[in-house]
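User: Reviewer 2 asked us to show a designed sequence for the structure in our supplementary figure. I'm pasting the structure tokens here. Could you produce the per-position amino acids so we can include them in the response letter?
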């Protein structure tokens, strides 16, 4: 199996993990966890896992000049990204959040062209438009978006969450050419935890651990292990091969995954609009993945550390 196929399989798995996370994250708030309490547990678990695994398996030092960039990535990709998402999701609905996340590839395409000079091609724009159209058909079909006061505030926060994540994907791209994935995530998670800690301190004493049900702890475990540890490893792995805009494009698959989960649970049925939406999304992925990689920072197959 070649490197490009492995990268796309990694991105597909990430989309599945993130798609499931919508339901789990929403179910844990505001009971038994407030958003910042859940954020604290996620960040603490992530930094412990990344530091332990990096200590065991990877012996690598980071240049001082790169620590500033990793700190910025920690601020955007872990602290601000996660905080805005949980606070926003607590106020809005998974449907609204999914609609807003459709904008992620657009943000990434813009920032990638500005910050690391990824070339914007006509085919790539068409692919993104197809994917966005498919995702919007799937999400909006038969649904109304709630724009009440709380939901609107939540939607704004989720949009800012996507903005931070888009910039993170672009800024972290050059780092994956220089350092092992585990080394990068060790420092990014550490800086992210440092940034969020002052905002979470107040809610920590209010955590009554003995009253939290086992099912809730399983949800937290999923968020820490799968949605943070494994997903971020896979993101960095994929970015060794594909462009940041391509990685962000898989955001469009998350509504498809959520739809399939609903069908399997018997809450929704497969319909013609859903089939059309899926075809548009996968067609868009195909177009974007076929674009010749012309970025000056594109990493050739086999480059970097494994």
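Assistant: Here is a per-position design you can include in the supplement:
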């Amino acid at each position: 199996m070649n490197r490009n196929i492995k990268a796309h399989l990694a991105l597909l798995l990430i989309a599945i993990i993130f798609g499931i996370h919508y339901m789990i994250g929403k179910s844990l708030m505001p009971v038994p966890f407030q958003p910042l309490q859940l954020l604290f547990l996620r960040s603490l678990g992530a930094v412990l896992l990344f530091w332990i695994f990096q200590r065991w398996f990877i012996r690598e030092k980071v240049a001082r000049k790169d620590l500033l960039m990793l700190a910025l990535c920690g601020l955007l990709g872990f602290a601000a990204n996660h905080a805005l998402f949980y606070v926003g999701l607590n106020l809005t609905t998974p449907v609204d959040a999914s609609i807003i996340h459709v904008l992620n590839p657009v943000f990434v395409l813009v920032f990638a062209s500005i910050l690391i000079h990824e070339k914007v091609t006509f085919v790539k724009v068409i692919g993104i438009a197809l994917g966005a159209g498919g995702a919007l058909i799937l999400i909006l079909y038969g649904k109304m978006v709630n724009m009440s006061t709380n939901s609107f505030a939540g939607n704004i926060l989720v949009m800012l969450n996507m903005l931070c994540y888009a910039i993170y994907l672009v800024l972290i791209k050059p780092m994956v050419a220089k350092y092992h994935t585990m080394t990068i995530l060790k420092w990014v998670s550490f800086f992210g935890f440092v940034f969020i800690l002052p905002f979470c301190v107040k809610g920590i004493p209010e955590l009554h651990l003995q009253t939290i049900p086992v099912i809730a702890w399983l949800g937290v475990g999923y968020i820490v292990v799968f949605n943070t540890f494994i997903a971020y490893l896979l993101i960095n792995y994929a970015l060794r091969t594909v462009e940041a805009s391509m990685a962000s494009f898989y955001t469009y698959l998350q509504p498809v995954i959520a739809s399939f989960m609903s069908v399997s649970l018997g809450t929704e049925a497969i319909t013609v609009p859903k089939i059309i939406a899926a075809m548009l999304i996968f067609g868009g992925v195909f177009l974007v993945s076929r674009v010749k990689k012309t970025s000056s920072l594109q990493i050739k197959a086999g480059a970097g550390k494994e």
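For the response letter, you might also mention the following. DSSP finds twelve helices and no strands in the chain. The chain has one domain: 3-290.
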